[in-house]
Design a protein that fits this description.
With 547 residues, the chain is α+β, with helices and mostly antiparallel strands. Helices cover 36% and strands 20% of the residues. It contains 19 helices and 21 strands. The strands form 7 sheets. A 6-stranded mixed beta sheet has the order 11-10-14-15-17-16, covered by helices on one side. β1, α1 and β2 form a beta-alpha-beta unit. α8 runs antiparallel to α9 and α9 packs antiparallel against α11. It is globular, with a radius of gyration of 26 Å.
């Protein structure tokens, strides 16, 4: 039986995900030099393994969510001697400090977590104290604030006219020193008609491209106070990308190519979380035929990473984001990413993609999905019968294409666990949209006979359509014969035997799109046949047990 080396200043073992002491160690690692927690390992270093599922991961995120301002962390599933070990890698904080849910400030000393008190605590807090740039005073006097913008802010906050200066100071928009009353950076962003004249490129640039090149054919600068920037930039982009026009019978439908709430939230997030210290860089919105990309200066604020962006939230500019919420231009804390992902899924569009390199954050909103506009209209019409969840919608489209749905097939389509797939299929059955055939292990679901799919809707599955062009070039596969899920798995595993496999390689070899390829790779990882390594663009997959 293999054993890990002993616990140390950067390594700790825990038996299970439910260990209530895990947050203490995350806080201590975060406030010191960082470290790794291995879950599924005894105190002696002996590997016992830990059950791991979507529910387990959610439970672990919730446990870590109880920490006040944790450092960045990432969760990885490892396989050691056929046992699952969960690694929680915690980065050392570069700003501020982490505390437990009851306010203790812990540091790592040797293999123990120790609470700081007294003079040591005072020195530590003083060294880590952080003043947010947005509350830094500028040279702009309160008298230079636009009266209409002042009145608008007082209205959205419900301030009485006589107390506005006090409320501005209280909320971080004003700093008063003696007789001087200076607007802060946040104050200039909201109360001055042209903030960029004082703060640099604090505006949104919109570029339109006709293809993949670097030459744009339209460029607009969206300037003004922040609420106006969010509204104008959202309207400009929506006007540019237009609608999908669908005519079924005598009825005409106009489908937005992007849900307005998704685009507005992406732009509002960029405005709220960008680094305003980077005065030479504007927020950049790129419009291309197949996507809209929003790029904001500055990396993600701790503890948020690309991997935990849905589970964790943090605000670099708390004054700015709180005001945007008051103006009803941003969602409540932690809801922005949820809204974008859920609304894209609800509209049967490909999910948003997030990327960062420490100097920028990029959000890509695809203008395409795995279904046609006609299918989107059909599902919208069916929804009049009752509520259809976003996952249910996609299953319904596959069924309309002639798919015989099983629990396994539903898991592959949706990228969810067994329980979620079964619930989705049963919801559609209970609403009379699918009918069930067979019992227990042989259960299958088909489109209800009385439903009429859109005119011209293909009876072929997505895999049939996208693989058809590649099949004739695959050795040993007859032209026109559809690859099964097992054949696709075997193909990817065969590629992995030759060397590391990437999502791009799977797409090129199989004809799958990015989302489908990710689902195949995730399935093989969950089955213990592949291991995921690397991060972001360096992510690749190898056979389990490979060195």
């Amino acid at each position: 039986m293999e054993k890990f080396p002993a616990e140390s200043g950067c390594l700790e073992f825990k038996r299970s995900v439910s260990d209530k002491r895990i947050p203490d160690t995350v806080v201590a690692f975060s406030n010191t030099q960082g470290g790794v927690i291995l879950i599924g390992v005894e105190d002696t270093g002996q590997v016992k393994g830990a059950p791991w599922s979507g529910r387990s991961e959610k439970k672990l995120h919730e446990l870590l969510g109880s920490i006040n301002d944790p450092g960045r962390y990432e969760i990885h599933r490892l396989t050691v001697e056929d046992r699952t070990v969960v690694a929680v890698a915690v980065a050392s904080r570069t700003e501020g400090f982490a505390q437990t849910s009851n306010g203790r400030l812990l540091v790592r000393r040797g293999a123990s977590n120790r609470a700081m008190v007294g003079a040591e605590l005072s020195r530590f807090v003083a060294d880590r104290a952080l003043r947010h740039f947005e509350t830094t005073a500028t040279e702009v006097d309160l008298a230079e604030a636009d009266p209409d913008l002042l009145a608008e802010m007082a209205e959205v906050w419900s301030w009485s006219p006589g107390g506005v200066p006090d409320r501005l100071e209280e909320h971080g928009f004003l700093e008063r020193t003696g007789a001087a009353s200076k607007l802060t950076v946040a104050g200039v962003l909201y109360l001055v008609p042209e903030p960029h004249r004082t703060l640099g490129k604090t505006f949104v640039e919109v570029f339109r491209y006709r293809g993949e090149g670097n030459i744009d054919d339209r460029r607009e600068e969206v300037v003004g106070p922040l609420p106006a920037q969010v509204k104008r930039a959202t309207a400009l982009v929506l006007d540019e990308i237009g609608y999908e026009l669908v005519v079924i019978g005598v009825t005409r439908y106009e489908l937005p190519r992007l849900p307005e709430v998704v685009l507005r939230e992406a732009i509002a997030n960029a405005v709220a979380h960008r680094s305003y210290e980077a005065s030479g860089a504007a927020i950049r919105v790129e419009i291309r035929p197949d996507r809209v990309t929003v790029i904001s200066p500055g990396g993600l604020p701790e503890p948020v990473t690309i991997n935990n962006i849905r589970e964790q939230s943090s605000a670099r500019n708390l004054v700015v984001i709180n005001a945007l919420r008051r103006y009803r231009l941003a969602e409540d804390a932690g809801r922005g990413v949820d809204i974008m992902q859920d609304e894209m899924a609800s509209n049967l569009l490909a999910p948003p993609e997030f990327d960062e390199d420490g100097s920028y954050v990029r959000v890509t909103l695809p203008l395409t999905g795995v279904v046609t506009p006609e299918e989107r209209v059909w599902v919208n019409e069916l929804e009049r019968r009752g509520s259809i969840g976003s996952m249910d919608r996609l299953l319904l489209v596959f069924a309309a294409r002639g798919e015989v749905l099983t629990n396994r097939r539903a898991r592959r389509i949706l990228g969810v666990d067994n329980h979620q797939a079964r619930r989705a299929l049963q919801r559609l059955r209970d609403q009379g949209l699918l009918f069930q055939r067979g019992e227990r292990g042989g259960v299958e679901y088909l489109i209800e006979g009385g439903l009429k799919p859109p005119a011209g809707l293909s009876r072929r599955s997505i895999l049939d359509v996208q693989l058809l062009g590649e099949i004739n070039r695959l050795p040993g596969v007859a032209g026109g014969v559809r690859l099964s899920d097992e054949q696709i798995d075997d193909m990817v595993l065969g590629m992995a035997r030759e060397g590391p496999v990437t999502n791009t390689m799977v797409r090129e070899r199989t004809g799958l799109d990015r989302i489908q390829a990710l689902a195949v790779l995730a399935h093989l990882v969950d089955a213990g046949r592949l291991e995921r390594r690397g991060q972001r663009r360096g992510t690749h997959y190898v056979l389990s047990g490979s060195r």
